[in-house]
Structures are given as C-alpha cells and as structure tokens.
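Reading group handout, session on sequence-to-structure problems. Before we discuss, look at one worked example. The prompt was deliberately terse, the way you'd type it at a terminal:

> structure Phosphoribosylglycinamide formyltransferase

The input record follows.
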Amino acid sequence: MNSSGELLPEQFIGESVTVTDSAFDASVMASGAPGVPSVFSWRGTSYRVRAVLHTGKTNRPCRHGSGERYIDKHVYCVETETGEVMTLYCRRTSGRKAGWTLYSLRKKARPMIQSDKKTAAASSGPLRVAVLVSGGGTNLQAIIDEQRRMNRLAAGAFAEGSVCANGVFAEGGADTDDVAACPYEVCAVFSDRKDAYALERARQAGIPAEIVSPYAVLGADKAKSATRDEKRFAVSDRVLALSRAYEADILVLAGFLTVLGGAVIDAYGGRIINLHPALLPKFGGEGMWGRHVHEAVLASGEAESGCTVHLVDGGCDTGKILLQRRVPVLPGDTPETLYARIAPCEHEALVAGIKMLAELR
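And the output record:
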C-alpha cells in the first residue's frame, strides 16, 4: 500500500486544506465529481498526491421530505509523494461554502530523535502521548475513547471504522465544524507485563505496543539474577529509548507498577504524569497500588477517598499534584465497591491531566 515505509495509526484531523489552483483532475470533474486536488497545503506544508487509493461519497436525504437522496461529500483517500496516507473530502451541501477538508492522516513512522530535551512546545499538532500500563488498561481505554470522541465530533461525527474500508463514509453526525479536535493522540503503549490485557486494547485500536518487562529488556538469565534496582533502571532506560523512537511528548503512567528512575526522569522532567487511586499524600508510596490502597483507606476509617494525577519526580507518588477527584466512603464498602466508585473518576481525571499538559505547551 505505502511505498515509503511503515505507517503510524490513523489520526483524525477535521481541518481545512488549501488547494492549489488548476490542480484538479479534469476528466473526473467532467463526470460531475470535484476531482481530487493534485497539490494542496495543510498547516503550512505543501503535499503532492502520488496516488488515489480509494474514492467514495456520502449522501443525505432531501430536506423537503421528498424521499430522494443527494450527494453530500466526495471522499478521496490518497497517498502523498512524501508517504503519508490522507483522507480528504469536499462538501457539496447547498448553502455551504465549497472547500476541502483533511479528515484523517496516517503519518510515516518517524526516526528516533536525538535530543533528550525535546519539548512538547516544539511539536506541532496533537500532543503525542505514550501510555504506560501493567494491567487491564481501563484507563488506557478511556484515553483512547476520548481521543476518538473528540476527533469524530470535530470531523462531523462519522461512523466508527476505517473511512476507506469500502470507499463510502457512513451517514450521520451534526454540523460540528467549530468543534476542536482532540489536543492529544496516543502514539504508543508500553507494558511491563507481557500478559496485560491493555496490550490487546492497544492492538484493537491500531496503536503500537511494546513490552518493557525486565525479562524482555534484560533477557531471562540476566533478569533472574538482577537486583530490584537493576530491573527498575533497565526498564526505565528502555522506556526512554522507546519514547524517543515514537517521539512521545509526554508519558502517562496509567496503572504502571514499575517506579521510573534515572535518565528518563531528566529527559521528560515535568512531562510524566501518574494516576494514583487515592488522595495523595495519604496512602501513597511503596506497596500502595490497586486493591492494597483501597484496603488501607477502609482500614483507616477515612470518610472519603478518590484519585490523584501528579507529576513524576523519581520518587514513589511524591511529585507535584495536578488535580484530584473525591468520592465518599460509604458504610459497608469493600475494596471492590470503593474501587467501582472511584474508577469513573480515574478515567475523567487522567484525561483531564493530559489535556492540562496539552494546554500548557
């Protein structure tokens, strides 16, 4: 499909592009379709179309109730000369200014960056997020779902699935041209456990996933004899290398059980956030994760609990607190019922924390 190398997962854009004059396919235009532009620019960069991969269209019912249907958009999935795969559409609805929109983009996989101090402010487009996980990945799913929701709303709320699977967009969606696209995109998922279900969630979403367990990083023989700190720093160094390779702007620890340390903290200082299932500074530190936290909260007789999103500073749950969400502890609560009450707050808080860093770029 793409002759320029591996492609990254699809990114939904929903932004206008500027078409070069006289760059249309005249033979296609003669049939009544607008014809895909051969040259256009987006965000200050000019793109030239190498090939048209798919074409399609959407239609809408007559607004006067006649039962007839009219073409609403002409859709083209194209490959550019620089290797990107882009989906463009031209809206033909009456009463709207004609124009072209970039619906989605698949970029070429980028080479490893060289600078340890690459900042999010230097990047353009959505904040690139690497999510670190150890378990089921429900918080990862919340991050992915919000990214999809915002991008589909911004692009006109098209239906779920590959927009070019059969050459036709699904119908539906409100007129949402003024809705902003998601300020972040998940560029990679790293897990320190090879059997974490979060890896399957990443696969289903088309997001690259890497295993960073001590056994994967050091090999079985070295991992068996390595000390706890040796394993910790080996995992941390691998996370740093992968984060550079995927050009992640920030790292999000969504239930990641390895305490990061060493060079990754320096390289991503102020750009690593962690979700903790309690109201720090209470119930944090070594051994305070998952069920253990909720058991400790209930044993203490606390009237409330919640979750915390904080910056990572190399310690264990010691970084600057960015935001917290609170829930009551009810009579008769168990670790399971308390977790069930906190979980939706975790999902919302972690997404809010990512958006907070995106706004600070």
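Points for discussion. First: Residues 11-107 form one domain. Second: The longest strand covers residues 45-61.
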